[in-house]
């Protein structure tokens, strides 16, 4: 290895040892914190997960903690029972032949049950993803529910020789249908490959038996299930199935879905509006149901309402005394901003509510807000919102709420994630909250000199309805090269939180400009809805204007500007490279969108290509020439012939969202035009988040920048 590569590798190895918080919970008395962490295990080529416990005194100070982390890497799901008598774990065991799944139930240090779910052959793989996955206890601690893949119907070839005794009895298993083994069955797309039809599974611990709950319509896939407080039913989310053209689900909060009620004896009721997109149902101690809700279709992510169905209205829906849900809006869509008593609020963009989110008539939640993730108290009666985030600039995410205690994670660009706890003051006094740190920090001394600036920008002489956007600049007092880094989505956002990538570039001597262009979340729903029909124009202009302002205001070497981005961020860096060929000196694009018109036919989200180009998505009828042209004209492929900057493309061969052919076609065109181009192909999906993929593309990306900035 060259000296340059050795330095890059050493920086990555240093940062890879810093763990990140996956989640944490408080026990019922609020005196014990059980936390889950993840750390990169380079030798194994994957992340290792471990648990750490903390004991707190009355002042919420740590008086004891685990001596060492406990490896929990093979746990798919876990849940502690309501009275904390048991802990259930769904564990995956891998061997050289196959994978097996076990449900374990522990009573303190005793293994009360161990059930081989694979051997029972009632269902397929257990779902442990963030969209469908759940594991929940019944109030009496006698049952568990979870989500799994439905067993497919058995099939075989039309012509198949059978054993003689089966032939004599008519051919064997009558449940086997010949000739259907190759029928195409769509799944839920990117990062949900193989997940086609979900079922709700109930495990009765007394008999160690499994039951598939009946009553859910055939064209619905259930997930995110929880028992009702009386234990007689479950509440969850169902997504409408449109086969064979099912749209991808992950990172798409706009899909047709309902909150549902299902009694254990099969009575099914829809609780939410018929035409909506919903997620994250939570049941209050009083039996009310609260969930997140937004408009159907449109941008893949946007502002959400928080709505409630009170217990008496829920009972009326169940008894069919009312036809439609009487949902109450606790928090409405915020178009621009709203002023609260201790700041400004821009709406709810979080993908979920905490599993435990209730505190004495109040709901606690977190959401991106401009440059940070902030946490809030929502009074359920007055509907007053109060910001309870930690005071130092950074991001505070609520993990668990028990009575008047709230547990959260906190980090910023310079500080890796830490656990904090606080007592929530009485109603009206929430602003006086005092946070106490639980976990010891993992400092990165080399980040101590980093300067973090929030750049709130507005285009001068602009007639657009939305004129402003924001950026996070991580820089130094010394003049450095700049990595211009627009996020993907496009409806997501950068926040001031610890990131290995950000730290990695800083330690290698770069400043980084993370651009939350117009269309990003956390700045009002009007900003989100501004971007469709303007991609490839407004977002590109924002990135260039942010570059110019950063160079003008801070210690930036204007002759050494780089471009770095993935997905829609890759779309933007390809645009910037083509539209401003003399400005940026090197490009790294990860699974970039290059041509929306050709991508529409092969991606799991064809609606994205239409909507972002300003078109109405449709599957029936004629595909019009003007639609194809509109998608192509907003794409960076139209500027490929002008690109001069050396370009590295990092592609995932299993990417369902932006298939690798987008990047490969772009690379061919760049090479044909004499541009220094290199392609890296990883056996990975859209996120390129497996440890080996991350390590390789970060190290090679940094090497690409450093090498070509010398030229």
From TrEMBL:
- Subcellular location(s) per record: Cytoplasm
| UniProt cross-references to PANTHER family, sorted A to Z | ACYLAMINO-ACID-RELEASING ENZYME, SERINE PEPTIDASE S9 FAMILY MEMBER
SUPFAM superfamilies assigned to the protein according to its UniProt record, in alphabetical order: alpha/beta-Hydrolases (SSF53474), DPP6 N-terminal domain-like (SSF82171)
Locate the Peptidase S9 prolyl oligopeptidase catalytic domain: which residues?
Answer: 498-710
GO CC list: cytoplasm
Catalyzed reactions per annotation: Cleavage of an N-acetyl or N-formyl amino acid from the N-terminus of a polypeptide
- Indicate the quaternary assembly: Homotetramer.
**Coiled-coil annotation: which residues?**
none
What does the sequence similarity comment in the record state about its family? Belongs to the peptidase S9C family.
Which protein, by its recorded name, is this? acylaminoacyl-peptidase
**What are the record keywords, sorted?**
Cytoplasm, Hydrolase
